[in-house]
Each structure stands twice: as C-alpha cells, then as structure tokens.
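TA notes, week 10

Several of you asked for a full example with nothing omitted. So below is the full record: structure tokens for the whole chain, then the designed sequence directly under it. When grading your own attempts, check the secondary structure regions first.
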C-alpha cells in the first residue's frame, strides 16, 4: 500500500480525507467490504490528533469490555448519555452512536491486526447511568516489526517528541499511535487500500447534484480524484485556523490547540459548506486547561493531584480536579485564561519539586519557563504575588482558606475530592486526598491558559453519517465523521474517548452505507 505517485487523475470507489481514528476506521470499513479506497492526508504523517491521544474510546457495550469483566450495553449507556447530552443533539443521532458502538468494535476486531482492552477511567459526569470506573476501551500496544514498515514509520510521533524536536522513542506503538498503526495494518491487509500523504483537499467535485470526487494539491500540482461511491470527510476541525476561530468562537487565535501541526485548518469543513452543507456547534471545542509554553503554544494538562488554580483576582473559581473539558468551560465562564493578558495561575508549593503536580503531555523545563515569565518562584506568598501581579491579600486569603479545607477534608467552595473522577488522580494522605495544603516554600506559580483538543462544530450529519443540507436532506455522495462534523455529544464531553469513539462509529456507519451505493 505504497503512496500513489502516478500522474493524471486518480480513481477510486471511496475517497477518505484525513487519517485519524475515524478516517482510518472508515477507510478500513470500505476496503474490507471490497471497495477500492484511497486515503489522502494533508501532512507528512498519518494519525492526526488521534496519534497524540491516550486513545481511550467511549464505545459502550463492546466485546473488549466483556473480556475485561465489565457488563455494559447501549441501553445502560443511553441512560447516561441522555442525562448528560439531553436534547442538544438529535436523539436518533445519539442512538446511532450508542447502538452501533459495540458492532464497530466487533467489526474491527474481526481483523487480526486490531485489538482493544478495557481499562478503568471514570465517566465525566455524576449522572444516572454513570460508570464510576468508566467504560472506555483502549488499543493494545503494537510491537514494531524487526524491519521498518513503510506505514508504521509514517505514524505521527508522540506529541512530546514532536513538540520538543526529540527522537521518536524505540519500542512498541502505544496509545493513539497504536490505534493508528493497527488501523493502517488492517487497511493494508485488505489489499484494497491506498494512501497519499502531503495531499491537501482544495474542493469537492459535484456533478448533477452529487459529490463525485475532489480536487487536492499534491507535490505542488492539483490532482482530480474521482470517487465512484462517495467521499468521507474525517479531517479534523478548524482548531488551527486563527481567522475561523475568531469568527466562529470569538477567541484571539489558534496557538493553544493540541491539534496536530500541518492540518486541522477546516479545509474539509469549508469544502463541504461550499458544496451546500449545513453546520452546527461552530462555537464549540473539546476544551482543556493547558500549560502555556515559551514559544506561544500550549500543552494539555490534566489529572491535577496538587495545587490550586486562581484567576487574575487571586481567587479560586472552580474545582481544579474537574474533568478537563468541564474545567475548560469553567475557565470560559470565568473569562480566565482565555487571552494572553488574563492567565490562570497554578499555585503549588515546594513539596512537588521542579515538576507541576499534574499530567502535562509535553514536559515543562522550569528554567526555560522561568526565563519566559511563565513560571515564578518565591519563598513567600507575598513574593509570589508580586512576581505574578496578583493581589497579595487575596492570594494569601485564598491559600489560607484552601489549607483549612485540606485540614477539614471538605472543600466547601467547590467540592473537590467528592467525585470518583477527582479521586482517580489523587495522591494526598490527609482526610481528603485531593486537598493537599500549600504551606511549604518555595511557592510556585505556573501559567495556565484555555486550550483544546480540537473543535467539535462542523457539518450536520444523519444516522448514516451523510452530510446534510440546510433543509435536512442529504448531499448525495458526501459523508463525514469526527471533528469535521457537529458532534453527537453537543456541548458536553461525556467520558474518555467520546471524540474518537464517536468518530469511529460514524465512519463505520458511513462505510457500510457507501458499500450499498451504486457506482
């Protein structure tokens, strides 16, 4: 399945735009059903933002859960999903996701290259039907062959390696890279899949009201691609496009996204809109608190086990142990950390050494961050306030109150430590392991801003993943999944792996529907 380099127009049954978890699920689904399938990827790497992820997949009622001893079903998940998402998206769309999640896992695991396993990771909301230990499954690590494999060597590096310019680690592919590697091998095994990297979609081709292919730029020249059955758009969102984010989301720019570089500029979405697609949820993203880096970027931060977040007033504004999207939404509501001039400060004390007390997907170098004014240290809280520009009296009062809560074991303001998700990452030894007092200098303040894992607004789709017009009718020949679409979860993030899991299910449904179409 080498990259295609022949001249002239290209032909296939199904064209898939993108190469993340949703795109490759759809590509494999089409190829496994006997369709000649071409995957085009804008960047030099396969995997998109999926390759950066931990690859938890929220796919209720699947056989990997059963192997792990977890009893789940679409109906159990439906109770929870309805309670969290409500009427913000069509119930028929929600049901399509939930009712076909287990089927998607079974279909993929029919290929010997694909294997999942259940691991605990709590659902994100205290709502009826919640699983406190979670219901997510993960790809099993993928050992690399002794000889380099063309497809596997082109899987996007881990986020920390790519961001810091470090070598790709040796050993098996893990997490999101394992998912991408396994899906690429599955696609290759069909004998009907082709891939073309460094190929950017520029427009969709319409004939007699039907999408029949696309135009894309590869190596500086425009290629016309005819897709006999149809086109599946699964190329991420518009998180890396500054103007679109300003226009649709009212944010100052696109520097703080975790979207993989080289893509996620809304190309597929804009092409679909030009072809007549309706859109929804354009103001939404999969939000997350993020560590701001000296180069202006930011890196996803989760799993806090120490410290507090304060806004520009020096006061706490939320439970710092909230699931990341919920914390991001609290930042939005508080207008804290949404612009460079109003950062959130992560305050913690010297007991944690030179590492912030949480999980940052790209490690922070204290010396470099200090030089950039993104990490301040002082032997006293007053000194820390002076360095950060916070009101010293307010910061002192905030820390004193928090320390009292730590001693009592109850966060009277924000209830930190009362939810299974909070406790999942806890490391403290006191009456509430999520509340560790801030009392031992030196004191630290690290800058936190509002980041995201990608946008989640895009084209509207139906239960077959067909792209819809404004009047609700499908655009013949055009399908979409993942962050190119308006998410089935609306403004909510129900649990770990909902973005990739829903992308995979709807791409699976798209492939099944494409296989039924006439050429």
């Amino acid at each position: 399945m080498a990259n295609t380099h022949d001249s002239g127009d290209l032909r296939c049954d199904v064209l898939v735009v993108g190469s993340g978890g949703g795109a490759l699920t759809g590509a494999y689904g089409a190829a496994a059903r006997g369709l000649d399938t071409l995957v085009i990827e804008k960047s030099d790497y396969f995997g998109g933002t999926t390759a950066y992820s931990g690859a938890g997949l929220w796919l209720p009622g699947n056989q990997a859960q059963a192997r792990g001893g977890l009893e789940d079903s679409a109906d159990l998940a439906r109770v929870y999903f309805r309670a969290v998402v409500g009427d913000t998206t069509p119930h028929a769309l929600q049901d399509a996701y939930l009712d076909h999640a287990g089927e998607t896992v079974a279909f993929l695991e029919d290929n010997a290259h694909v294997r999942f396993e259940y691991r605990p990771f709590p659902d994100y909301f205290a709502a009826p039907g919640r699983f406190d230990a979670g219901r997510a499954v993960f790809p099993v690590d993928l050992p690399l062959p002794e000889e380099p494999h063309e497809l596997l060597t082109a899987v996007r590096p881990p986020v920390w390696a790519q961001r810091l310019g470090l070598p790709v680690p040796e050993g098996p592919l893990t997490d999101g890279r394992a998912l991408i590697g396994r899906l690429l091998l599955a696609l290759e095994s069909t004998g009907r899949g082709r891939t073309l990297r460094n190929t950017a979609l520029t427009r969709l081709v319409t004939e007699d009201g039907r999408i029949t292919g696309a135009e894309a730029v590869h190596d500086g020249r425009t290629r016309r691609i005819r897709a006999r059955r149809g086109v599946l758009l699964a190329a991420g969102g518009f998180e890396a496009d500054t103007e679109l984010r300003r226009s649709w989301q009212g944010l100052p720019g696109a520097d703080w996204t975790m979207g993989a570089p080289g893509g996620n500029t809304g190309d597929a979405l804009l092409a679909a809109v030009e072809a007549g697609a309706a859109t929804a949820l354009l103001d939404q993203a999969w939000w997350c608190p993020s560590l701001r880096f000296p180069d202006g970027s930011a890196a996803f931060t989760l799993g806090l086990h120490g410290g507090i977040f304060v806004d520009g007033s020096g006061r706490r504004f939320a439970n710092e142990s909230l699931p990341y999207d919920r914390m991001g939404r609290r930042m939005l509501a508080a207008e804290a950390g949404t612009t460079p001039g109003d950062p959130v400060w992560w305050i913690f004390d010297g007991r944690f050494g030179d590492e912030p007390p949480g999980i940052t997907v790209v490690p922070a170098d204290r010396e470099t961050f200090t030089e950039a004014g993104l990490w301040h240290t002082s032997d006293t809280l007053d000194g820390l306030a002076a360095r950060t520009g916070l009101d010293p009296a307010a910061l002192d009062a905030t820390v004193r109150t928090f320390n009292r809560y730590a001693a009592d074991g109850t966060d009277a303001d924000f209830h930190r430590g009362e939810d299974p998700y909070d406790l999942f990452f806890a490391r403290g030894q006191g009456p509430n392991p999520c509340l560790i007092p801030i009392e031992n200098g030196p004191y630290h303040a690290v800058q936190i801003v509002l980041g995201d894992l990608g946008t989640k607004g895009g084209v509207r789709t139906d239960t077959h993943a067909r792209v819809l017009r404004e009047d609700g009718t499908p655009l013949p020949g055009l399908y979409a999944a993942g962050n190119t679409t308006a998410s089935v979860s609306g403004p909510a993030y129900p649990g770990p792996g909902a973005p990739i899991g829903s992308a995979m299910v709807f791409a699976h449904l798209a492939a099944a529907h494409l296989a039924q179409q006439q050429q």
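The chain has 14 helices and 19 strands. Use that as a sanity check on your answer.
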